[in-house]
Amino acid sequence: MLRTSVLRLVGRTGASRLSVLEDFGPRHYSSGSLSARDDARDARAYFTTPIFYVNAAPHIGHLYSALLADALCRHRRLRGPSTAATRFSTGTDEHGLKIQQAAATAGLTPTELCDRVSEHFQQLFQEAGISCTDFIRTTEARHRVAVQHFWGVLKSRGLLYKGVYEGWYCASDECFLPEAKVTRQPGPLGDSFPVSLESGHPVSWTKEENYIFRLSQFREPLQRWLRSNPQAITPEPFHHVVLQWLDEELPDLSVSRRSSHLHWGIPVPGDDSQTIYVWLDALVNYLTVIGYPNAEFKSWWPATSHIIGKDILKFHAIYWPAFLLGAGMSPPQRICVHSHWTVCGQKMSKSLGNVVDPRTCLNRYTVDGFRYFLLRQGVPNWDCDYYDEKVVKLLNSELADALGGLLNRCTAKIINPSETYPAFCTTCFPSEPGLVGPSVRAQAEDYALVTSVATLPKQVADHYDNFQIYKALEAVSSCVRQTNGFVQRHAPWKLDWESPVDAPWLGTVLHVALECLRVFGTLLQPVTPSLADKLLSRLGVSASERNLGELYFLPRFYGHPCPFEGRRLGPETGLLFPRLDQSRTWLVKAHRT
Ligand code: ME8
């Protein structure tokens, strides 16, 4: 009975996979806007970050996860009104042994600790411009209702039984470990103690009667789900890893702890002597947010993209889909996995004292600057090392010099005295390359620039769809460089507005460069919202002209009217991104080997 319903659900999930914008047809003419058909495809989207433990203050890794989700969500909203049905949740994971112990160590009640640290996360996310629609705390009453209901469903389907669990438990990671995943570490007095091979955190031997979930029944359904949804886990190497894990035996999973040992959690319904395992409790947050167990949750599930760090892949790619299948629901549509930020080549940890405080970074590098840095440098497939010189170098070169310099070159009074979007001259820059004539001024490289910028929005959308935001930013940055090359090649500062020969070409050079800047500003909105707003406002682009659906690059080149031509630029508001001072004291110095 169970098996039939599982198979049916897997089939349905396969059919409704998150689509990639594979078919990019221009709506009106050959520019790089996204088509309405693409927008309509997946009307609803629900993005989530992990909910973060409140045992310690947030660091740049937590902010990074939230930024990835934020950028994905903002990019989707920009695609047009039909994609506005977007939900984005984050929050704090407040139950479990880890929090119970951290509160005791800090001399606080668990509630005091949770309130305090959850507030830190909320403040950080607000400061960093995280546009979440929901912030969940697992200590909320609505969550308790959802978890206990979910538990009841698993129980009624015969998936929970009572048994004795004996083995290792790691409180820091809140997980059970087989003997093969435990090693011994030398202690300070020549003794040794058992630790998790993966995380290095201490483990302790546990033997108690718990409720056990029949996880072993789900090995094949999980394999089928992953094989028929090759994009369910992105990037691909993580998908592969999970399939490898599933090649091995999948033991049943203990999903409760004795309340005398773990009291800080949600009691098992009908059995107060047991507390629900914190990971089962935590994972259900994704359902609580969308209204579970009320039927309204069905309009958002399973249109979900979970953004997670690689450390919690097993919980999201094995336990969670198995729980969902067990409860008669579809697995999430997509799990987007990213690697970790290290500091000077080392894992960030309180005990090493190398935790980078994200609020200091936001103050130091500005909100947009630091958002840009993390999203431009963070690569999902590999760990990325943090140090301050890297931030300063990147932001000075890409935001201050390349982008800011380009804007300045095209809008400065000395070059653009009328402070307008000048006219584009089709004789100077005919749409057909290779034409010769006395007034033709465009060169082969200029046509290459037009092609690059025209196809940029689609390229960027593909990178977002493939969870490669850093590649989207790399592509924008490369086009910014190309545009600077274009301006440099034609040196508008050497052309004369008063000369009837120069003026049409001078206007055209500025028009093309401003059009490129308009595309860059529009595409940068998900990553650097304030900087993009400043840039687009300076160009005189109104709020209703900033969607990707309306992003038609250089329409005059394609023989269409341009609404910006002849328009006054917006007011001058100073440097787009002031250069950062190299001589500051560093928080984290470069690590040289
Ligand atoms: O695991 N680099 O919470 P957590 C990048 N409560 N990202 C990092 C990182 C780093 N160095 N360190 C942490 C938990 N992260 C559970 C989650 S979800 C139902 C429950 C990010 O506070 C990354 O997203 O330990 C990682 O998966 C998450 O924070 C772990 O946060």
What would you say about this model in short?
Helix 11 (313-326) links the parallel strand 14 and strand 15. Helix content is 42%, strand content 15%. The longest helix has 24 residues, at 388-411.
Keywords:
2 domains; Rossmann fold; six-stranded parallel beta sheet; four-stranded antiparallel beta sheet; binds ligand ME8; disordered N terminus; Isoleucyl-tRNA Synthetase, Domain 1; alpha/beta; 18 strands; elongated; 593 residues
CA(first)-CA(last) distance: 60 Å
Helix- and strand-based class? alpha/beta
CATH architecture tag of the largest domain: 3-Layer(aba) Sandwich
Helix content estimate:
40-55%
CATH class of the largest domain: Alpha Beta
CATH superfamily of the largest domain: HUPs
Whole-angstrom Rg:
27 Å
Which consecutive residue ranges, at least 5 long each, have pLDDT under 50? 1-41
Strand element count: 18
Strands in their spatial order, largest beta sheet: 3-2-1-14-15-9
Chain-averaged pLDDT: 90
How many structural domains does the protein architecture include? 2
Largest sheet: 6 strands, parallel
Tally of individual helices = 18
The quaternary structure here is: single chain
CATH fold group of the largest domain:
Rossmann fold
**Small molecules in complex:** ligand ME8
Which descriptor suits the 3D outline? elongated
Strand content: 15-25%
